[in-house]
Amino acid sequence: MTPGEIRRLYFIIRTFLSYGLDELIPKIRITLPLRVWRRMLFWMPNRHKHQPLGERLRLALQELGPVWIKFGQMLSTRRDLFPPQIADQLALLQDRVAPFDGALAQKQIEKAMGDIPVESWFDDFDVQPLASASIAQVHTAKLKENGKEVVIKVIRPDILPVIKADMKLIYRLARWVPRLLPDGRRLRPLEVVREYEKTLIDELNLLREAANAIQLRRNFENSPMLYVPEVFSDYCSQNMLVMERIYGIPVSDIETLEKQGTNMKLLAERGVQVFFTQVFRDSFFHADMHPGNIFVSYEHPENPKYIGIDCGIVGSLNKEDKRYLAENFIAFFNRDYRKVAELHVDSGWVPADTNVEEFEFAIRTVCEPIFEKPLAEISFGHVLLNLFNTARRFNMEVQPQLVLLQKTLLYVEGVGRQLYPQLDLWKTAKPFLESWLKDQVGLPALARALKEKAPFWIEKMPEIPELIYDTLRQGKHLQLSIDKIARVMEANPARQGQSRYLFGVGSVLMLSGTLLLINRPEWGMHPAWLMAGGLVVWFIGWRKGR
């Protein structure tokens, strides 16, 4: 490890211990070395004993920076895994991270606009941030040209070196995983870390986020399920994003949503529908759907609509992965474990030589007890976890392209259960997936393919006669070449026979000449002429055999 990595690792350990997070280590036999090692670091005491554990965990992650804050945001959606006192504190990481100086944010905005005072472009600019998160913070203003209310998002200063330092350390740890764990190579830790790094670096480019938001807004234009605010791209740059200000209820504010009479069941189901629509219809999904990025419109609580912001992280799947994923989901819904096993083999997610019968039996053994419960009580995250643990025994490799999807699905389920604990994720998703698969393989798919290819075929239509003529001419030349090769092959045995005969004659002449030269030296040059004749006959035989 480099000195910089050692310093960063020391800082991480010191931060965790100074906030007393060693309390999270379970007191079981396997963790004994960790607990002994902690006692050896007696000079790093818990300096925040007066604060509850949840608050200490939040403050520690916040102090460590954006990589760790993102991790905390993900954990905050899993209220089924953590008690409320921890989950509530982690939820604050979604939009209430300690802000940086608003005057510094104003300087960044002016620099992004060409060193022009902020008053030249905006009215009512508020130096106090509206919200602050791990990567950026948001200020409110009005556009001077039309008076529209907007929010201005600016990247935190000097954040890139912190991210790079943490990622270098995580890469180092990822390289150790295959050495420390028996099946570490199967987990493909480097590929997963590389994918995570890419998403973090992409978030630092607000032009990318602007493009993502414009695309997502177009995909859900006039949709009753999701509204994406307008982006004012003329004002955007790599470090600044200007978009429409929205007013909505945070999706985590259950009390306010219920107070205004929101249809919570429909709201939870629409969250699932929005996710699957993005993944399977559009191949373009918002991959950072934690509660801090999701609001609910005040309008029409009986027919609620989501408002989505912060499109810095998006994901996509190729056609093959979408197809296999949809078929896997449906096979699970139908408890068709044979189909699940076959799909894993066909997709290449497990080795081709996997015993399908054994894999099917292993999946059945894990999933049948889970499905004995009512569907509404089954955690999709729990099913995925059990499936991956089972597939690990069959050398299933982690699929980096599915990591974002898995994380987002867990977000969606966590939010949905929070809104409506009786949410039946399976019942909501199954009709959508069945309809999508039918649309991909039926007559509508054929008609759509013909429609998409029609302009290409029309463009190539005038060239068809010439292509037919060239094909026929090439076919004639090909036939002549084949006939010539056939004749050569037919003549070849005769030529080979002549060659062998001449080699035999040449050998006899060479051998006779050599014997006469040794036994009858008085014959002078006559044996030498025999040997020369043998060489000539050999040469003729070699030419015949070529």
TrEMBL record:
<dbReference type="GO" id="GO:0005886">
    <property type="term" value="C:plasma membrane"/>
</dbReference>
<keyword id="KW-0418">Kinase</keyword>
<dbReference type="GO" id="GO:0006744">
    <property type="term" value="P:ubiquinone biosynthetic process"/>
</dbReference>
<dbReference type="InterPro" id="IPR011009">
    <property type="entry name" value="Kinase-like_dom_sf"/>
</dbReference>
<dbReference type="GO" id="GO:0005524">
    <property type="term" value="F:ATP binding"/>
</dbReference>
<comment type="similarity">
    <text>Belongs to the protein kinase superfamily. ADCK protein kinase family.</text>
</comment>
<keyword id="KW-0547">Nucleotide-binding</keyword>
<keyword id="KW-1003">Cell membrane</keyword>
<keyword id="KW-0812">Transmembrane</keyword>
<feature type="domain" description="ABC1 atypical kinase-like">
    <location>
        <begin position="93"/>
        <end position="344"/>
    </location>
</feature>
<keyword id="KW-0831">Ubiquinone biosynthesis</keyword>
<keyword id="KW-1133">Transmembrane helix</keyword>
<keyword id="KW-0830">Ubiquinone</keyword>
<comment type="similarity">
    <text>Belongs to the ABC1 family. UbiB subfamily.</text>
</comment>
<comment type="pathway">
    <text>Cofactor biosynthesis; ubiquinone biosynthesis [regulation].</text>
</comment>
<feature type="binding site">
    <location>
        <position position="153"/>
    </location>
    <ligand>
        <name>ATP</name>
    </ligand>
</feature>
<dbReference type="Pfam" id="PF03109">
    <property type="entry name" value="ABC1"/>
</dbReference>
<dbReference type="InterPro" id="IPR004147">
    <property type="entry name" value="ABC1_dom"/>
</dbReference>
<comment type="function">
    <text>Is probably a protein kinase regulator of UbiI activity which is involved in aerobic coenzyme Q (ubiquinone) biosynthesis.</text>
</comment>
<feature type="binding site">
    <location>
        <begin position="130"/>
        <end position="138"/>
    </location>
    <ligand>
        <name>ATP</name>
    </ligand>
</feature>
<dbReference type="InterPro" id="IPR010232">
    <property type="entry name" value="UbiB"/>
</dbReference>
<feature type="active site" description="Proton acceptor">
    <location>
        <position position="288"/>
    </location>
</feature>
<keyword id="KW-0808">Transferase</keyword>
<feature type="transmembrane region" description="Helical">
    <location>
        <begin position="524"/>
        <end position="542"/>
    </location>
</feature>
<dbReference type="InterPro" id="IPR045308">
    <property type="entry name" value="UbiB_bact"/>
</dbReference>
<keyword id="KW-0997">Cell inner membrane</keyword>
<dbReference type="GO" id="GO:0010795">
    <property type="term" value="P:regulation of ubiquinone biosynthetic process"/>
</dbReference>
<keyword id="KW-0067">ATP-binding</keyword>
<dbReference type="InterPro" id="IPR050154">
    <property type="entry name" value="UbiB_kinase"/>
</dbReference>
<protein>
    <recommendedName>
        <fullName>Probable protein kinase UbiB</fullName>
        <ecNumber>2.7.-.-</ecNumber>
    </recommendedName>
</protein>
<dbReference type="GO" id="GO:0004672">
    <property type="term" value="F:protein kinase activity"/>
</dbReference>
<keyword id="KW-0472">Membrane</keyword>
